[in-house]
Amino acid sequence: MPKDFRIIVLISGRGSNLKSLIEQAQTFNIVGVLSNKPEAPGLDYARRANLPIFAFDRKQFDSIAEMKQALLKQCIELKPDLVVLAGFMQIVEPDFLAAFPSRVINIHPSLLPAYPGIDTHARVLAAKEGRHGCSVHIVDGGIDTGPLLAQAACDCLPSDDLATLSNRVLALEHKLLPWVVNSVASGDIDPAAGIPRYSATARAQARENDFVIFEQNHN
Ligand code: GRF
After folding, report:
1. Alpha carbon of 16 to ligand 1 centroid (Å)
2. Average per-residue pLDDT in the chain?
3. Residues in contact with ligand 1 (CB, 6 Å cut-off)
């Protein structure tokens, strides 16, 4: 399959989801990795893979708004078919979303709509939840809201602590996000207009991998 589907990945830190995208890219090309933190360790994965890197240093701009404008301009210049937020810890503004309608997706470490925001694993442990997991959703301007594309879940064990639970969820993230991005790139998941559609192939693969998909969004 020709890999002419262009994605850009926005990160702020560790970049393990970026690494999983680099390693599992089947139907897409990563045409740029952008960060609001020039020192983000995850940029090393992009360097090693020889991907174009665009890092924005707040100190180089008069205001955060100016920096966000520069980042948006760069994103537009890269002409992405899909924008992937993978641990990008900066609010995405309406003008950004307007530039890529229904084409900005985010990976979040909880079974949304439960536990939006930060510290999800600690809050899940404190609430003694039986299940936890991760979600990939279309970004709509809220904090971790927007139509869900897919989720992967796991049990929480009585013996779990922050490290064991977050590692189990992270392992799921590293399968779920590349699957969603490959599927969007191949046309098997269509996020058009915020109402996702799934091909028979995507449905079968979701069943095989125990991913939850969200066809009821069509209602
Ligand atoms: C992941 O847990 C992701 O779900 C969340 O931020 C974390 C980023 O991890 N949005 P990494 O930088 O990809 O390792």
Report:
1. 7
2. 95
3. 11, 13-17, 42, 86-87, 107-109, 134, 173
